Fold these 3 entries.
Entry 1:
Amino acid sequence: MINENLKNEICRYAKSTEPHECCGFVVLKRGENQPHFLPCENVAEDKENHFEISPDDYLKSEEMGDILALVHSHPNGKPKLSQADLQTQLYSQLDFWLVCDGKIHVFPKIPLLIGREFEHGKMDCYTLYRDFYRLAGYEMAQYERDDDWWEDGFNLYLDNIEKEGFAQITDQHELQVGDVILIQVGADVPNHAAIYIGDQMVLHHAPKRLSKRDLYDGYWLKHTHSIWRFKEWSKLDFTVPLNSLALSLI
């Protein structure tokens, strides 16, 4: 929960900078137990639609303590992160607090897509698939799921994938970036998901392993159940999730 005084301080500051976007950091200063808001100058050229924090302001905030979140506002926009915001969040690996319509909307950071530790229900193949699409600009629902849900009559993927806006495709030779490949391993229903990332490669997260790229061939191809494409894929931008894969190599 956001401290009420901190929330009011941030909202007042955002209002004072309109019609420009505000920006700043929430910092937990060393030796203190209450976070503080540190406003920063917006040095973007188009301040009404974008924000940019100078390296000097970032360093000053970092020297004060632990940066908990990056704050900015959308006085002329919607309460959702733009692709530019998602790109900035990806590189900063910070929670984003977005002020819009007098409210603070919290967007937790999305960990890099490769190298994640597996934890069923929290950091698993569905989480990876959901986060890939979050970075592309589409928010899917979070579904509660027990370990080995496929043995308890639950059908996580097939029960939900169509209502999330996906349609099945039949030609495996026409795969495109972002297609979701449902895989069935030792179960009566598909119980694993991979995302096609181009060049005959998929991104996925198997139990007891780190999330990784794999060649879509052999074992995974053999156990493919079906392939699904987001109906409005042309409205999404897969640049940010693909950049996440590139960052994992650095």
Entry 2:
Amino acid sequence: MARTKQYFIIYKPFKVLTQFTSEDGNPGLGTIFDLPRDIYPVGRLDLDSEGLLILTNDKGLNSALLNPKNSHQRTYWVEVEGIPTETSLDALRNGLEINVKGIYHTLPCEARLIESPALAERDPPVNYLKHPVRSWMEIRLVEGKNRQVRKMTAKIGHPTLRLVRVGIEDLSVFPLQPGGITQISEKVLYKKLKLI
């Protein structure tokens, strides 16, 4: 009998691994969510990153979403040290060289300064005494190399303090809060991801 495909979106909290098992003292998703054994994350978010993650038992979705040829746009809200200039933002937009197993030239992306978003406080919060001057950016990418956004902001001289993935194509993490989960239908999910 064919298993029923299931789809969930979650708001992965800070310092939680993108796997169900805990490791090296870091909690896994299994410490927060009680889901069937065949459900797994599509893609990943770094331990230090927060936000939108899709969980499913649909292997077809995994290959469709992670295939670089499909160029799915991912939206991140990024709190950085300092305030990037328009010249620095242009460097991000035009693509720059970062180290990803050797020198890699990032694809063009969208980058702009935004007002401080109304997000739940991170636990633990950013050390604002250590980083008194901060700003928020919205970055939209169609690729997802390892720690790419962090490497990009560091390259322009504005290290990332907080990184939240808020969307993939038309799929948004909101209104979920950190640790939140909701089930979504295949049709709605595929439509929001522009796979149909």
Entry 3:
Amino acid sequence: MAATVLILPGLGNSGPEHWQSWLQGRHPSFRRVEQADWDAPVLADWVETLERAVAASSAPVVLIAHSLSCILVAHWAARGAETGSADKIAAALLVAPPDVESPALTPPEVHGFGPVPTDPLPFRTVVLASRTDPYCSVGRACGFAVGWGADFIEAGDLGHINTESGHGPWPDGERLVLDLLKDIEP
């Protein structure tokens, strides 16, 4: 059975030129999880929306998260471990997690996602971060990966790995997703 791939954009959604939108265009079976409010996120609402999306899948799920949704996955996994829904996750790629606990680095709209859970995630996880991300130091992102029990990729000087940093088409990201899918296919 093929995996269900869920694309999880961050604050503001991923616009048409963003690498997540490009990836979805190249792989139409990948589904974007649509949040009710992209600009004023409420953690409980985002967690519930992700819970519904995972529950709707009969196949193993791969999560492809960017920015704020990386932190969403950590919060959801803590809840999903209690409900059993986290067992449906085969793997997750978490790209450019922001430091939502830092008022100096992140906007106030995301601070309700703190504190960041640091328990190990109950599924294979890869965290990818940039040395030049304005929303999180690479050391802090690596700390998230360690707490989550994730593999960590320090990707160089890629900014926030979004449209503003030149990441519309992102073949390296696509390769990571396809490698995760290959690893979980029987």
